[in-house]
Amino acid sequence: xxxxxxxxxxxxxxxxxxxxDMKYETRQLQxxxxxxxxxxxxxxxxxxxxxxxxxxxxxxxxxxTLAVRLLDSEPAKPEQLITKTDFFTLxxxxxxxxxxxxxxxxxxxxGALIRGTGLQ
Amino acid sequence: xxxxxxxLGRYPTITSQLMSxxxxxxxxxxxxxxxxxxxxxxxxDIRVYWLYADPGRIINADEVFEKLSRVLSxxxxxxxxxxLTSKRRFEWIKRGLTPRxxxxxxxxxxxxLTLIDEPQRAYPVGRIAAHVLxxxxxxxxxxxxxxxxxxxxxxxxxxxxxxxxxxKITLSLDLRVQHALHEELxxxxxxxxxxxxxxxxxxxxxxxxxxxxxxxxxxPNNREESLIKGRHxxxxxxxxxxxxxxxxxxxxxxxxxxxxxxxxxxxxxxPIRIGGYTLEDRHxxxxxxTVEEVFIHSSNTGAARLALEAGGGKLxxxxxxxxxxxxxQTELGLxxxxxxxxxxxxxxxxxxxxxxxxxxxPFAFATAVASMINGGTLIEPTFLPVARDAPQSKGSRVVSQxxxxxxxxxxxxxxxHGTGRNADAHDYRIGGKTGTAYKPKPGxxxxxxxxxxxxxxxxxxxxxxxxxxxxxxxxxxxxxxxxAGHNAAPTTGRLIRRIAPMLGIAPSQKIDENRQASY
Lengths: 120, 519
Prior knowledge:
Chain A is an all-alpha fold. Chain A is 72% helix and 0% strand. In chain B, a hairpin with a 5-residue loop joins strand 1 and strand 2.
């Protein structure tokens, strides 16, 4: 009987320690979870801000202003446009080049322009 | 008091109702993103900070004022000292601080000041689509345009599929087309020194609006601008006498009734006299014109004769069937009410045939023309995308297929050889009709005009309709002309040359095989 009492007392003490530990850990985890949730919502807001920023930066009027100022290209004329089917018809009719030319080193005109503006 | 407490304890729902009511009124609500038909963002919520003070907890109002004046702009300081020393326990100091300003105020470490973060609407593309999107008030509630519509229709928002995304609503607008329209209108304003210019691009098959703009407009990010006089959506909220573009209706009705055929001849030289009013065509080169020529060269007498033959009741009924006489309902609300002569006399039938004495909103007008050239079924304009598998047009029939085809031919001929030839976008097979109307003023008509050009393309199988309206254009060069053919038509042509490739309309050209093969 005495042994049983001692054993159950020991068991109880063990449980108390275990529960205390678990509770402590839970609180820690809860704090961590709310911290994470907070940072997720912060990042979501940041993402929304970035998307808005991106949309602003790539808005057509901005791109057009930059293109007019920095590129030598012109808007496409109707004569320059053909449909995809026509394109392949023409491609099939074209003669393959007699011999393979040496590939020229690729020129990056737009890259050169960007370098020229000193933005990089 | 005790009774109230007991009630609150017994019925906890009352408490939650009370709480939610205050929350809604006090704090800004989060709104879904608005994107165009290709997923480009048009409006979104970003987080901003609101600053409020509890004057009871402020120790030294002068010090707080001095420190805040370093961060806030001058305009925000008006009345600030009074707020800081007031007897109340709550005063808004500033709503809509940027994160940087909020951080600066936070690091001042002043007691009695509190920052809360709130969503605020941002329009990254600025004024390009202002009249369609509308704007919100400081509580982030929609008060104009689509923004107002979505507040009552939250079910159209698509829930996000993954974390970090926001609910969104897709509109039928195409940002690229919208930009092109906005830009061409502002170019037209400059070129013709016009008072205003507006335009719309819509799909003639299902009524989707691809672009709508009216200048002068405003930046929805700076909503106070919208209050300036004349910044409203003229195309939608105003009604105008549009002039000769209205001849489309008189001619369509006559063709539909079988009164005439395209090649029938009409007397355009003999003046028409009705009720003390005489109409004559001083510029008529010959006595008789075919119906085709009446339309292409825009003869008032010819159109009037056609309308009188059909009869006023029929013409009015036709306007009504096209939805011109009643305000039109879309997501942007009701269009302007048409101004119709009452009672309708014979002389009104005559003037209405060439677009005078009857005012309609240009938006309703564009929809009516689209319904006539798309094969003859009435469309319902919308700013939301129409499902692709939905029947292309389920509206009632307004004209027969044959009449629609004849009208397309007339529009095409006018843009090719008639008053609309300056539009110069033949590669995209456009067809259109010009209209120049003197502006009414008290007691008659002024010398200033409103010019318009309505065009469909490609005219062999119309997909899109463009309407451009220019208010008080001046001749481009001194001594030049200010009719629609010299301003609205070229503007429309330039716009169509820009947007047709974007909309997948290929230019019609015979491939010169010899030339092309040499590439």
